[in-house]
Each structure stands twice: as C-alpha cells, then as structure tokens.
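Researcher: Here's my situation. A collaborator sent me these components and asked whether they could plausibly form a single complex. I don't have experimental data yet, so a predicted model of the whole assembly would be a useful starting point for our discussion.
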Amino acid sequence: MQGKGVTMRCNYACGSHESLTRRSFMGGTAAGALSMLGFGGMTQVQAAKKLAAQQKQVVVFWLSGGVSQLETWDPKPGTETGGPFQAISTSAPGVQISELLPYTAQQMHHLALVRGINTRENNHGKGAYIMQTGRKEQPGFAYPYLGSSFSSHLSPPDSPLPGYISVGAGGSSKEATFLGPRHAPLVLSGGKAPANLEMHASMTTERDKLRRSLRSKVSQRFEQKRKTAHTEVYNESFDQAAALMSRRDIFDFSHFSDKDVERYGKHDFGQHCLMARQLIEKGVTFVKVGHTNYDTHSENFNFHIEQLGEFDRPFAMFISDLYDRGLLEHTLIICMCEFGRTPKINSRVGRDHWGTAWSIAVGGAGIKGGAVSGKTNETGTQVIDREVNGGHLFHTYYQAVGLDSTEEFYPNGQPIAKADPKTEAIKEILA
Amino acid sequence: MSVNNSEAVAASKPVLNDAVEARKPGVDYDAIDPVKTHKVAELKHTVPLTSCRVDPTGRFIVAGAEDLDIHVWDYESKTKRTLKGHTSWVRSFDFSADGNTLYSACWGGDIKAWNLLDTEPKSKLTIQAHQGSARWVRLSPDQTKLATCGNDLLVKLWDLENGKLLQSFAGHERHVYAVEFHPDGKHLVSQDLMGVIHVWDLHSGKKSRSIDASVMTGYDKKFAADMGGARDLQFSPDGSELATAGITNVVNSFAGVQDPIIMLFDWKTGQEKAKLKPDKTFQGIAWGVRYHPDGFLIGAGADRSGKGELWFRKPDESEFYHTMKLPAAARGLDLLNDARHLIVAHSHGAVHIYRMTEEEKQKQV
C-alpha cells in the first residue's frame, strides 16, 4: 500500500505552511490554524470563503498515450486529415464532437472544450509533465502534480482520507515533491483496494491500541533529540495508515448494483469509473482514473473505435450520476492526456504524436457547460484562435475550484508560483 | 511459369498507347511469369488510397481513399471520374458480373450501388446496412443478393431488387471485418477481429460451423487492445480453399510491430492448409490476396516503414517463392480479367498497374 511506511525526503524543515502536520493543525488554536494554513491576516469570513473552496473535488480522466483530438473533441469530417468518422451534434447547442462519443455527446452541456492547446511537446513523458504540472520540465526543480496540489489545497487538514487516489492510472510518490508524502497518490494497482486494510486476525483492538501507544512513546523519546523531516514523515505514515484502516469502507467496491455494472460496463475502465464515483461520494478530494491506451501510430481508427467504445459510456454515466447526486457542481472533471495526435494520417493508417494543436474537455465545478475555447484550422494542423498551453489550463483548474491561481508555494522559503505567471485562466469557459 | 487457364484469355493491349514496342525476337511477352512482374501504369489521386477493385470485364478500376469519394478510372483511356455520396471512407467494393454496376461499403455503415455506364454516376441504391462501419460488401454468385458485415457484429443479406433485408446472422462477438460467398452460392463465410470465421448456411439461415483463424489476432497487454481481422478474404475459383489476409504475432500493435499473414483453409474440413508469411524483416499487414487462374496465389501488404510488397506462392508450397518490393504500402489488391495485370492501391495516393510478363521496353514516338 503506497503511503504506508513512506520515507521519501521532503522539505519539512523549511517552516512553510505546506509542512503542517495533521496533528499540529488539530492541536493549535483556530487563529493559529488559519495562520498555518496560509490564511494569516484574513477575517473569519474570508477564511470561511476560502475554506468553502476546499470542499471542492476533482476527477481527472487520463487517456494515456494521447487520444486523438480529431476522433474526440475537434472532428474535421470530410477533410484530408479528418479520418472516416463523422461529427455529431451534442446536448450543447452548436457544439459537435466525434460520432465515436455518442453518450458523451449527451452530456456536453456539462462540459467545456478547449480546442486551442499548443504545448509544443511531442514526447510522452514531457507532455505528461506539462499537462499535470502546468509547466515544462526544468532541470533541478520539480513542480507538484495536479493531484498533489489539489490534495494539498482542497483536502480538509483533518481528513482521514487520502487526498489523492489513482485508479488504474499509476502514479509516483515523486508527484508530491515539496508538498510531502501526505499528498502523494495512493495508487490502487489494478483498480484494487489497498492490501492489508483489515487488522490482522491475531490482533485485538486493545492490543493494537497498546501497540500504537508504545510506538508513539518511543518515537517521542527519539524525537526529543533527533527530530528530522524523515522522522516526522515516518511517524505520519503510521497515522495515515491508521486513518486509512479506519475508513476502509471507502475501498469496499463490492456493493455496486447489477444495474450500475450494466450501465458502466464490466470491463476495467467501467469498474474504475464506478470506484471513482464512490470515492468522490465518500469525500476523496482528487481521483485520477486512467484509460489505456491511445498511442495509435498504427491502425488509429480501428483502435479508436475500440478504445473510445469502451470509454464513452462509463465516462458519460459518471458525469450524469454526479449531476443527479448533486456532486457535479462542486466536482471539477478534467479529461486529458499528454498530447493529441497528428492530423496527417501515416502509412500505417495511424496518427503520431502532436502537441501543436489539440483539445481537452473539462466540466463540472466552476465550468461553463457547453462553452468552447479555441479553434484550429480546417485540417486541424494549427491553432488559429485562442492558443493556450499547460499554464493557462492550470490557472483555469485552480480558479474553477475557487482557488487563487496567482498564489505561490514556499518550498525552502522560496516563492514558486502555483501556475505559470506568464499565463492566465481561460475565462471564457469559467462559469 | 507456364500459361494454363489464362492462355484462353486475350493478352492485353499495351498500356501506353502512344509508344512503339521494342520486342525482342523469340520472347513471349504474353507468357505469365510472376518473377517478371513490373509496373506499367500509375493512376494518381491526391490522398492515400484505402482499397481497390477492378470490374470483371476489365474496363473500370475503382479505389477508395482517405476521403469520402470513389475514384473510377477507365482502364483503356485512364480517364478518371469521381463518385460522390458516401459520408465516410469507402473500404470495400464489388461488381456485377457484367461490370456495369459497382457496389460500395463505407465506414459510415452505408452500402451504395452505382451504374458506371452513366457519364456521371449517382448512387441508385443506398442501404443503411450497419450501425457503425460497413466493412465489406459482396455480390452473390447468382447476382441477386448482397452480403455485408460491420461493426454491429452482424452479417446481413440483402435483396438486390429492392434493398430489403433478407437475413441477419448474429454470432460474432467482435467487429466483423469481411464476408464472402462460397462459389456454390449456398454458404457465406465471415471473419471477425478475433480470427473467428463463421460459416453460414443460406438455406437454414444458421451458422453451420466455424473455422479457427485465431492466430490472426493478438492482444497487446501494454496497450490493452486487440488487433486482427481479415483484411481480404477470397475463395479459390473451384471453392475448395479459402484464403484470408491479415496479421499475426502482435508484438506492439500501436507501432505496427506484427507480422503479415495469409492463411489458407480447406473448405471441406475447415483445416488449415498453409500459413504464409513474408520475410521476417517485413512487419505490418497483409491487405490483399488473390487466386490466379493458373493456380498460384498472390498477396500484397504494407510494412510499418511505409513500403509495400507483392508475394507469390506456387500451389501447395508452404512459402512464397517470389517477393516484389513496392514503393509504398499496399492497401488493396485485385487481378484483371486478362490474368496478366494486377492493380494495387497504394498509401501514397496512386493505383499502380503491374504486369506479370516479360517487360516490353518501349520507345516514345
């Protein structure tokens, strides 16, 4: 189970508010807590407003390999680059998407499209970094990933729940960088609940309590003279594990109704979407759901029929269910990947990597459903209106959930802009 | 190779009519020899081609492309017409026996019929045949019915007179890539993504048996996707054998790392007779297969590099005995009625006509 026994180095000793532990927060005064949270100088009303923003949740659908924008959000039927598929009308007036997404088309009034992305990056890893950190990779410094950032900003400090859970999408403890291991992804490998959430059969509650108490006393004694970031992280990992065990109910995925399984599909992605729905209902701040794979250098069209045929319905069901349950208005949904695919169709009937002119879809909290930003030319080879990059997208995500995207992190006391200050939010898709 | 059945077929006229032939004495320029296959003409289009067919009388060459049109060339004059009406790429064609009527199937699910004797042919029949792509269309031997298949997992039989559905065959669990009538007119075969070949009895309307071509599919664990399907399907003229072209040994499907394959099956027993693969350095897809009237087999394919090849196999041999390199990926193959010419649809946007005889050096007038 990731997060248990984590010992990665963090910048705990920097003294920034990002290094708060849950225990120190709970043990402080309200004013102290506000100060420590970075709310220092705010009135209670202002703080309450900011706290309200922290109720927001985020779900990312990560279509790894790079889904084709021409077969999804920006179809160009009848052109030399358009491929064999048609565009269809959607529930958003005037907005058309690919015929491969008929269920999603019925949810477009909840979604906005960004069709003018130019990340200038055709490498999988580098493209993924841009889309998940809002920045290009820089030697010597690592920006936190979206899941870790939102876990840090939006998770209630005393929540026993992991702030960032990845379902079928992988993840690394490195994503949290200076935000610390508490905000690293809890990866549900293979879409399965973490192992060992139940107390061992030989252990009673009373014995466990005594055991924890003993470990705590030993730790405290050790820390009196040798407290470091490592020891604190080590201690916190025990607290996180205990909290996780106390809320193991969120990982009980055995009670989906037959109707839900039918609606979402019995395949892995359908099940992962159902799991994501449950995690959001239970209050997890950030959930990343992966669907693989779209790296279609060969047979692009046959593969997109197959892959999007699996993706479309559960994705649409997820949006519909969140809306029906009143969760969509405070849950930001982002459907993205590392880059798009070339308008030019290669000799293998495939499309290659293309970061020059492509699209993503966002929806839910703070997003103007049915809005479209950006435009590509007739064959999709260039952005001709409202070009944006990862920085613009990060400002937009932050503002969609009510956060100030112009604020800064302070790792090691140095200010680091949360989103690229050279860019700004895509206002036209914000509600 | 000696000329047998094709001796009765008149040799074609020179492809370049304004040239004077420079014939060597004692050379039979009509003798069919695949080893001497050479290009004699190029029919250009502006975008990559996806399929091709030539009519049974040798007058019309048609091709589908990465556009919405059908491209028709007159074989003699090389003049080109464009048929408009499909809403998606055209993947499959068939002709009436007299060559006058063309049938086409597109990714949008429609089947259309065209009278090629019209100066500007318009679609005279449209059948919304399948939900999702209509991948294949074939005319029955008695010229009264059309068979189609598609992504709705169905094989369908249509009345040519009125376009009405006669029979629908359910049983495939994945997309159905190709369908073909047995020459006896009593059976249909269809092959899907997973290499399942079903044989349908047209009298009972039921599946009579299945043939295992499961080596023609592969699941790529990394990419979590299946790849396979028949890219061409044809019975031998006597109906004793079924040939199917596609892929095998999927290593990295998204990068096109897999082997082309042509499989031959005994019709009576359903047993595999041959697995034909080109040299292992050629990785990609076999897109075409044809039985020559003289008994040898011709295949065509596309390598992941973008190049193509033609392959030739003598009857009952287990390997191709001759390979001809092609300048671009081959995406379709057909044989002219003169038995001496092949057409290949290429990814670089042209149909090439190849002649399987000694090359006639030609002098321009």
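Model: Some features of this prediction you could bring to your collaborator: The interface with chain A takes residues 46-48, 50, 66-68, 87-89, 106-108, 132-133, 151, 175, 222-227, 229, 253-256, 284, 302, 304-306, 328-329, 347-348 of chain B (CB under 8 Å). Chain B has no helices and 32 strands.
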